[in-house]
Predict the structure of Various polyols ABC transporter, periplasmic substrate-binding protein.
Amino acid sequence: MKKHRKPATMLVAGAGVLSLALSGCAGAGSLGASDQTITIAMVSNSQMQDAQKLASQFEEENPDIDLKFVTLSENQARAKITASTATGGGEFDVVMISNYETPQWAQYGWLKNLSEYAQATEGYDEADFIPTLRESLSYDGSMYSVPFYGESSFLMYRKDLFDQAGITLSEKPTWAEVAAAAKQLDSEDMAGICLRGKPGWGELLAPLDTVINTFGGRWFDEDWNAQLTSPEVERAVQFYVDLVREYGEPGAATSGFGECATQLSQGQVAMWYDSTSAVSTLEDPSSSAVVGKIGYAPAPIEVKDNSGWLYSWALGIPESSENPDAAWKFISWMTDKQYIRTVGEDLGWERVPPGSRLSTYEIPEYKEASAAYGPLTLDAIENATPEAPTVQPVPYTGVQFLAIPEFQDLGTRVSQQISAAIAGQQTVPEALAQAQQYAEVVGATYREER
């Protein structure tokens, strides 16, 4: 396990964000008290919205616990949750975090050990979580957050449009194939592809980092020398920027996961490379115009084989929570096997939170509903390579992020430069020259520690 430093700058910046952005609502009383309020900070993705719809079932079963949800966009959630947890503010009893934050925050002592809770909860079955996800949410052998859903990345494309145009993809498509298909299908009425361009280390950089990796690029060499102006990185970023500028969606520089999900589900783009969790939107007959028309293929490759990312939106309990036992009651309800069945039976099997538990992929109804994408999702998650994300050796782990504390700020700064290139405000070499300077500052601090 690589150790993570706790940078003082994160704490100072976090306190500033906290004072501006959070009003907070700490839980009242201890477990068993009446009108106990558990405040839950969550990202406003579709699966989380489903959890809110079903939350009344939890409250009926636990009349002594009231739930208060604070739902935020991805970038807002990261900033507010980080600020609150880092400063021990106590605003939230449950926080939605990822496999980026979890091991670092566990080392800092910011999170409760959830393996202790899981092992004391009859039938919870911690071992049922997909092993790669379980490991990515662990520190020193214990889980400090548990997955609500897990994801890798893959290519989603309109099968009907591909058939009409006579386009076929390889079993493992290359980025050259994707670019050629985007060019052929792009028209005034239909964008060839949707790719994230919105700034944010968890927005634009998520798909772009997988492209950098598979093109042979890396952020740092083994000695922490920044590599963002290397030929491999420049070629990858130029490819991505050109592809989305020439054949991508309108307003690409402000498009993130949500915007692309809407574009493809409403039939406005021919392809989308992004999270495997997008199927919950694309295959939902109540909101999608393309149900049954989408084909799924592994994350496109170039030099490096197997380029899909590994990510989980997971639930943790800050050490500052005044009601950790009640918080665990809610977390265990929302991440249990029974919750998955409840979503399938009440809302539809296509809306089941994917990629968290192995047993999900053995449910007959889910196997039937997810035949087109379920096995591909599970395979991508199980075979992701966060310990060896690049062609050349690197001193960090993580596929679509670097598992170092500084990446939350560094990645956001770099993404802003590249988003500006997508918007046509500067060239890719100009964007990467500035990004290199940011990375050099971070790399220097690691070299000094040697």
About this structure: The first strand starts at residue 36 and ends at 43.
